[in-house]
Amino acid sequence: MKIYSHENQKLHKPKGYYSRGKMRQPQEMPERLVELLKAPEVMGLKVTDAKEIGIDPILAIHDFGYVDFLKHGYDEWTALGEEMGEEVQTSIYASTNNAGLGILAKAAQYQADGSAPIGKYSWTSIYWSAQTALNAADALLKEEIPQNDIQICLTRPAGHHARKSSAGGFCYLNNAAIIAQHLRQKFQKIAIIDTDMHHGQGIQEIFYDRKDVLYTSVHGSPINFYPVVAGHEHEKGQGEGYGYNINYPMPHGTDEKGFFSYVDKALENVTLFNPDVVVHVLGFDVYKDDPQAKCYVSTQGFMALAKKMKALNKPIIVLVEGGYCIEKLSENLQAFLSGFISE
């Protein structure tokens, strides 16, 4: 098992986010990564510093104008010389009929909701989050690790809500999509299984008309719950991708047994697809005490989840994404890692 991270991911420090009618305290904070890094340290496991793979795999998924906004938007924002606030944060949402003339128009075009502000150092963290994920994909492409090895990427900020040309849900670059596309240079079929509390509408949108990348997601029902407009069971893909997008929205309040009943169905889909590589989007926000949780997974449940993933007997890249009960992140990650290590 190989674990990747990078210190630059701690530089993104949101001041707050707007959701459900009011400003809220930020939950996606640098302290999350600090706590996650404690787990391998306690277990005596090495964490590899991610190396730079480059911008090209990012631009293979995301629009150039959007990536340019993420990289330069803060400078444009502050260059206005007005009282604009400390972060790029829009209250106008207009992704269409928008010429993108001026930073306010660009923010309206490229920020899908109020939960993805951009500060002075945000791009550095966003970029290195993607690079951290790409290190695992690159290792498989270059055959630097055993074929059926497990790779864990401690990635922050997360990615599965990021769409081709918009940020939202604490996400900016869609790491799962970026590495799936990168892996397609060598591997024919990639399966993405998403067990975060929220549906990854960005992944769904990017691969919705493709059959070479299976996307299956277990998440809380999106009715009155983020991302609200996607993640329903009837969304199955389109064109040649029909049937290769499979959603399992859980009723809010689902217990651990119910959670795993949906996970088992998703794993059956993955097994039938018989991918060359599995990408697992892992969210610790399904933990019973997480402020975002709508189900009740215990700490030991994460060990069971890892054992189920391991049983696929495929090369697996795990992207650690959601999870906002900061005081339990290390303990929950230790349980998850133990599930891969135990016989």
Description:
The chain has 343 residues and is an alpha/beta fold. It has a single domain (2-57, 118-341), classed as Arginase, Chain A, CATH 3.40.800.20. The chain is 36% helix and 15% strand. It has 10 helices and 12 strands. It has helices spanning 30-43, 56-59, 64-79, 103-110, 122-141, 175-183, 201-207, 256-273, 299-310, 326-341, and strands spanning 2-5, 17-19, 22-24, 47-49, 150-154, 190-194, 213-220, 245-250, 254-255, 277-282, 295-296, 316-320. An 8-stranded parallel sheet has the order 4-1-5-12-10-6-7-8, with helices on both faces. It has a two-stranded antiparallel sheet with strand order 2-3. The protein has a two-stranded parallel sheet with strand order 9-11. Helix 3 crosses helix 4 (103-110) and helix 9 (299-310) runs parallel beside helix 10 (326-341). The longest helix is centred in the middle third of the chain and has 20 residues, at 122-141. The protein is globular and about 60 Å long. 51% of the residues are buried. The model has no long low-confidence stretch (mean pLDDT 96).
